[in-house]
Amino acid sequence: MRVLMVEDEPVIADFVVRGLREAGHNVDWVMSGSDGLHRALNETYDAIVLDRMLPGMDGIRVMQTLRASGNRTPVLMLSSLADVDQRVEGLRSGADDYLAKPFAFVEVLARLEALLRRQTGAAEVVTQLRVADLEMDLLKRVVHRGGQVLELQPREFRLLEYLMRHADQVVTRTMLLEAVWDYHFDPQTNVIDVHISRLRQKIDRDRAVTLLHTVRGAGYLIGLRT
Amino acid sequence: MRLASASHLQRLLLVYGVGLVLAFAVVGGVSLWAFGHLLERDIERSVTMDSQGLMEVFHTDGRAGLKATVIERTRSADNHDAVYLLVGANRKIVGGRPAAHLAKTLPRRGGWIRFHSANVSQGDEVLAYVQALPGGGWLVTGHTTGEHARSRELITRLGSVSLILLTLLTILLGWLLRRSIDRALMASLDTVDRVASGHLDERVPERTGQDGFARLGRTLNRMLDRIQDLVGGIQSSTDAIAHDLRTPLMRLKARLESIATTQGGDRGPTEIDAAIAEVDQLVATFNSLLRLARIESVNATPSGIIALDEIVADAVELWQALAESRGQTLRVQTTPVRIAGDRDLLFQMISNLLDNAIKYAGAETVISIELEHRRDEVLLVISDQGPGIDDDQRERVFDRFVRLEPHRGSAGTGLGLSVVRAIAIRHRADLRLEAANPGLRVRLAFPAVADITKP
Q1: pLDDT at residue A201 greater than cutoff 80
Q2: Distance, CA of B403 to CA of B413 (rounded, Å)
Q3: Which of B405, B404, B426, B401 lies closest to B415 in space, CA to CA?
Q4: Rounded to an integer, what is the distance from CA B321 to the centroid of its chain?
Q5: Fewer CB within 10 Å: C terminus or N terminus of chain B?
Q6: CB within 8 Å of B31: residues ≥ 6 apart
Q7: Cα-trace Rg, chain B
Q8: Cα–Cα distance measured from residue B217 to residue B442, given in angstroms and rounded to the nearest whole number
Q9: Mutation to test the A interface, candidates B244, B257, B328, most A Cβ within 10 Å
Q10: Does A154 touch chain B (CB under 8 A)?
Q11: Chain A (8-27) residues lying within 8 Å, Cβ to Cβ, of chain B
Q12: Residue numbers in B near A188 (CB within 8 A)
């Protein structure tokens, strides 16, 4: 995909840009808000990574101008202001997601890919999710693996659904807390890990091929790993 | 809102009113007494003059002349208030109004007496002067006090009616005064309340003049200006710190991650991963501190009405898995309750408390969560069977970075309970730590919705 990166801090920009290129994406990088707005309006991107605090024109203004002109490119806003109300302010200005600094690169990548998938997959209504021999029927709310029914608690179902909707992508702990539990808070303990290991017990126990993987320093991923 | 000093003001006005009524009663009583005293002096004077007149008759016309005058005066219709009695040396009545019992008790040397007589026209008490006659016998000259008693009664009635009227007027005036003082203070206090609940730019209406109320308004406004400056300062410096520290931390993390990826993939945890974990821990602490500063600097009570039982259920559901992995049981007892609150903050608060309970209570223990609706409060109680907290440490644990058992080496920033307290204050909840014997009981009392919606 083609990504526009608007970030005035070279070290951070370099780190994100390099990572995205390694992941196989095309990245354009500009340092100021006005340049970013100019590029975003005149060229076509699949996604924009926008820093909130920029010299000249700040990220919120760029965001508002972009949306006011009818541009609907998905935007991931990066910010050193991490509080809930600042986050709400960012999302209200039209950003699709908001990530507080400092972040891990995988978090940027995971969120960007989730945004993109949301953009392209929004049209069709999905009733079936499938990862290898793991199948989820969203209408009957049942999960099978290899023809065998798995008994899941409602929250485990939502957790697995989110993971399967983002199959083969890294999903971070924060993303899971926000999407599955729907609370913006700051857990001091990795409380998600226990839920994941319970889910893993149910889907991967005594299986030759494991599907739910932990990605070191990042989060989790569901899919076939070679 | 009720004026905080209402009872004090009421007391002041009550003291003032009761004092006023008492003062009137005392003045009235003294006047009544003085009035009676003067009337009696008046009677005494006229009796004395009467007596002297008769004695002159005695001296000029002798005993027979006196007797004739006494009999004549007694018969005269003009003298129905006057009493005359001439008594012989043998204590027998010679003339005048018959009062046989009196004749026997007359003081030998004369002087003032009082007696009752049914024979006199008005009233029955008589004030009389007894004059011993030269050569034996006595002359009694008296006057009824009936008129005096009636005047006295009249004045007493007048005084009582005035007292009742005065009491009613005092109550009315007191009520009016209280209302006007209340109004003058309420306007200011309502403004201060609104400022306290987060509307920092509101100001008290200022009055012209030099009295206490005018000064109160000006002083309050100066104080509110100062508070607004300070809060603004905290917020802008918090934002500045956030930006100035997060950016270098981000660079540090970016560099470490770059090194980690160039050194290549899956060789297991390395020193660089440990360094990244340290950065993350630093960021977690830093985030908690900033969050704390933000929660503390915004004083507005959240206005959204939320179902606390659902938040408790969600939090329990999130933490249950962790508790069970340690063999702990979460025992939950909730009832549907609504409070005014911020769901993310409340979730954070309950999470921190459950995190602590799970962390510090041992394996195979029970952690209980109870939510109930008392009359005017919503009570959330979380108790564990862990080691508890000593009495003298209970206040300290709310301070920043205080960790009672560092030797446990458990993860955490030492800010969890500080955040809990800040969120409790923001929700006007009363937060208490109690001994659960064994263990710790955290008791949170939120105002019930009906109370919190009042301004």
Answers
A1: yes
A2: 9
A3: B401
A4: 50
A5: C
A6: B155, B159
A7: 47
A8: 41
A9: B257
A10: no
A11: 9, 11-12, 14-16, 18-19, 22
A12: 284, 288, 352, 355, 411-413, 416
Q: Which are the contacts of A197, defined by CB distance < 8 A and separation ≥ 6?
A: none
Check CB contact under 8 Å for A9 and B250: yes
Q: How many angstroms separate the CA atoms of B263 and B257, rounded?
A: 10
Nearest to A173 by CA among B239, B318, B221: B318
Is the predicted pLDDT of residue B382 greater than 90, yes or no?
yes
CA–CA gap between residue B236 and residue B241 (Å, rounded): 9
Assess whether pLDDT exceeds 50 at residue B273: yes
Strands A47-51 and A75-79: what pairing? Answer: parallel
Given an 8 Å threshold on Cβ–Cβ distance, is B355 in contact with A195?
Answer: no
The verdict on A191 touching B (C-beta cutoff 8 Å) is yes
The alpha carbon of residue B16 is apart from the nearest alpha carbon of chain A, in Å, by 54
Q: Which phi-psi region, left, alpha or beta, contains residue B304 (left: φ > 0; alpha: ψ -120 to 50)? A: beta
Strands ordered across the beta sheet of B93-96: B93-96, B82-87, B138-144, B125-132, B111-116
Assess contact for B134 and B127: CB atoms under 8 A: no
Instruction: Label residue B455 by pLDDT band (50, 70, 90).
Output: very low
**Inter-chain residue contact B291 with A22, CB threshold 8 Å:** no
**Residues with Cβ within 8 Å of residue B9, at least 6 apart in sequence:** B3, B178, B181, B182
Set of chain A residues whose Cβ sits within 8 Å of the Cβ of B292: none
Distance from the Cα of A103 to chain B's closest Cα (Å) equals 7
Question: Of A101, A155, A217, which has the smallest distance from its Cβ to B276's Cβ?
Answer: A217
Residue of B159, B178, B158 lying closest to B21 (CA atoms) = B159
Matching residue, tokens 């030269």: B134
Q: Do B239 and A81 touch (CB under 8 A)?
A: yes
Q: Residue A102 and residue B253: Cβ atoms within 8 Å?
A: yes
* Nearest residue in chain A measured CA to CA from B261: A19
- H helix runs in chain A, sequence order: 10-22, 33-42, 59-68, 84-92, 105-121, 154-165, 173-176, 191-204
Pick from A9, A11, A184: which is nearest to B344 by CB?
A184
Nearest Cα residue in chain A from B416: A188
What are the structure tokens assigned to B357, written together?
């309970």
Vertex B299 angle, CA B298 and B301, to 5° = 115
Listed range (A51-65, B239-253, B303-317, B335-349) with the worst mean pLDDT: B239-253
Burial of A204 (0-12, 13-18, 19+ CB in 10 A): middle
Helix (H, G, I), strand (E, B) or coil at B42: helix
Alpha-carbon distance of A150 to A155, in angstroms, equals 14
Question: DSSP assignment of B371-398, as one string?
Answer: EEE-SSEEEEEEE--S----GGGTTGGG
Residue B265 Cα distances to A25, A34, A142, A217, B270, angstroms: 20, 38, 36, 12, 10
pTM over 0.80: no
Residue in B with minimal Cα distance to A159: B318
Q: What is the DSSP letter of B320?
A: H
In three-state secondary structure terms, A159 is helix
- Predicted confidence (pLDDT) per residue in B155-191, tens digit: 888 888 988 998 899 889 988 988 888 888 888 888 8
Distances (CA, A) of B328 to A206, B322, B363, B435: 27, 9, 6, 19
Least reliable range by pLDDT among A134-143, A183-192, B413-422: A183-192
- Across the range A105-111, mean pLDDT stands at 86
